[in-house]
Amino acid sequence: MSTVPEPTAEVATLAERLHRHLEERGLTCAVAESLTGGLIGAHLTGVPGSSSTYRGGVVTYATDTKASLLGVPEDLLATEGAVHPEVALAMATGVRRLLGADFGVAVTGVAGPEPQDGKPVGTVYAAVAGPDGNATARHFRFTGDRGGIRYRTVEGALELLDSAVRGDVAGNTRS
After folding, report:
1. Buried/exposed 135-150: b ≥16 CB within 10 Å, e otherwise
2. What is the pLDDT of residue 28?
3. Is the dihedral of CA 169, 4, 77, 56 positive or negative?
4. Most exposed of 15, 74, 110, 153 (fewest Cβ within 10 Å)?
């Protein structure tokens, strides 16, 4: 049985830095999580004062909830499955809209132990949607056990969101 690693100083620092960057700009974020099951939201809410920048999160672990709660097109899910960059983009856009946040970040992937939708274990897509309507997705290929893959997904998502807030990737107008 896989265990979830304890939070590292690196992830805590990422969450704190992201909160600071959001707060400095008067911006908010929301999270749509699949394989991480709420871990990203847990890290974001572990930062004191995070209620000023974190609107909330949605865990859409089952494929049908991605469509019903976040508006991911059912035909996309039927054609490509839940582990796909366009699904991650639709999730990020959907959670941003649903929770009224400036930024939405989403993750979907395969933590294992078995492949899903023809995708190998360790395949992860993270996406961020920003206030100007731009969005971007990133593909990650992680190795290790289920807990390690989930934890590295948290790191990747926080880094992607922080980059977007700072204007380094699509999703921000550099205000």
Report:
1. bbbbebebebbbbbbb
2. 98
3. negative
4. 74
